[in-house]
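Archive maintenance. Older records in this collection stored only the sequence; we are now back-filling the structure field for every entry so that each record is complete. The fields below show one back-filled record exactly as it appears after the update. Entries are processed alphabetically, and Two component transcriptional regulator, LytTR family is next in the queue.

ARCHIVE ENTRY
Title: Two component transcriptional regulator, LytTR family
Organism field: Spirosoma endophyticum
Length field: 251
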Amino acid sequence: MKSLKILIVEDELVTAHDIRETLEKAGHEVTDITRNSPAALTSVRINPPDLVLIDIHLEHSAEDGIDLALRLLAKQAIPIIYLTGHSEQPTILRAQQTRPAAYLLKPFRHKELAIQVELAYYNYQATQANSVDPFLSDSLYLPVDQGKGYVKINKNEVLFLQADRAYVEVYLLNEEQKQVFSMNLGYIAQFFTNPNFYNLSRSLLVNLQFVERIEKNQFYVKGRKAPVQFPENNHKLFLQRFAIVKTPSRM
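Back-filled structure field:
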């Protein structure tokens, strides 16, 4: 992997310097650390990076990270990686409109950050050179064996994806065994843009068309006997994704 020039846009300076240290240890160059949109735009003009890491929530900026990404992309094509603690569906949908190279949820492991940066840049370059858009394609080829190969996943057959520390477990229709990939759920979730996919929690992305039964803190999907657990406080929002017929009140 070649050394990348990377701009960090992060208003928490301790976090920003930790990220810089991680990236420099991995052999990359950090062109600048900025805390707001104007400073980031100036930095890109003076010292153009290969890739930009942007925190979505910027307290010291009139614009958030997604607005900044739109400004950057209006001037040039450049891979964007979002760093954020926000996993709400509206935020993710806004971020997806900018076609980010990756979307990493805080907190993340620093070793994982370096790997995801390199994967994101590689995938971005491959997308630019290839007419097949992974955001729109029905199939994805995900890395296995530490990037030595790729395995095909049909998005339309995905029941749900579940984070397990630094890994993502993918459960497929008509397959008893889950498939496990070494990557962040926030990163892989960006490629599932179909409205059927819903972020039920920070660790769970669900294909709504395969949900067959919902209870207070668990649901069942087609073809699997075991229930899938989720936070009970997300139950009400989850129900809103379905055409629910409630029991009529008695007179």
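Update note: Residues 110-129 form the longest helix (20 residues). The CA atoms of residues 57 and 64 lie 6 Å apart.
Entry marked complete.
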